[in-house]
Amino acid sequence: MMLVYCVSLAKLINAVIPRAVYWSDAGVYNLSCDNVARFPTFSVVLDGSYFDVQPLDYTLKVNESETSSGCTSAFVGAIPGQTIILGAPFLRHWFTSYSFDGDKDAAKIGIAKAANASS
Ligand SMILES: *[C@@H]1O[C@H](CO)[C@@H](O)[C@H](O)[C@H]1NC(C)=O
Ligand SMILES: *[C@@H]1O[C@H](CO)[C@@H](O)[C@H](O)[C@H]1NC(C)=O
């Protein structure tokens, strides 16, 4: 459900988001819900094409109680190496189509903007 990156890459990405604060107990970055419009848009580059990840896609609202709520970043550093998992924050914005006819060398993923994408 997240955009899971290696720890060092998640740190670099969240460092670009204004006032992101690492919350070590939870392993996530807290964000200010009031600032979302000022957050940067990131792009994932796949095979030379740019796929945007907008602030509203990666800012997750957390409802803590009746009276308080907060936001956390969907960019989470949890895995070693170069692997990146493009979870719900990415898939919500981009429609994906998978083609696999038993031949892994011919496997394909098509990506297009989802009809209900935020922008
Ligand atoms: C992150 O947010 C949670 C929930 O609002 C809060 O309990 C925690 O203290 C915050 N952590 C930091 C490092 O600000
Ligand atoms: C959190 O969710 C509960 C239950 O849906 C709701 O009653 C409450 O108002 C929410 N809190 C905030 C701060 O939005």
TrEMBL record:
Keyword terms, alphabetized: Signal
Domain of life according to the entry: Eukaryota
Signal peptide stretch: 1-15
Residues of the Peptidase A1 domain: 1-112
Protein's name in the database: Peptidase A1 domain-containing protein
Source organism of this protein record: Apatococcus lobatus
